[in-house]
Fold:
Amino acid sequence: MAVDQDDVAKRIEAGCAPRIERSGERFLIVLDGPAPSGVVCAGDGQKQFPSWQHAADWLARFGIGRPTRETDEGQVAALTLVVIRSRDLAASREFYESIGLRFQTEQHESGPLHYSCKLGDTVVELYPHGSRGTAGLRLGFAVDSLPTALARIAALGGSIVSSSADAAVVDDPDGHRIELAQRR
Structure:
């Protein structure tokens, strides 16, 4: 039985949260919550999707935001912490603030003074380089205005590796490659 947009919207308003769950080699859309919850059928009568992206695209057709993503083991995977070790904390703070992050100074017990900010559900921290490096680190950020972010980075003397109308790759002060994308 197909579920229409109004039914899905009513179930979400009643407190159900959409998530996509792996079922063998296929994926199901499940609404968790107090009012009728359970597996949602696609508009074409299918109950399973060949990929997580197909299921997310089906939800997007109805104006429903992105659900949580399930891993193969059924656990929700989410990025919660990014620690960037820097040789020049002040320069790194200025660089990341130029693309919209806003840091607070922190120090945990006898640990080093560092900067921290909340980016959605993710904490981004800048720590002194110390003995640990992040040579393999590559981050990506969606920015409200790519041209503005690139202009700020250029004004700081930053390195813009490549850019197009909707994306760019830049180097932060420690040489970490950072991908910037125009927020859609």
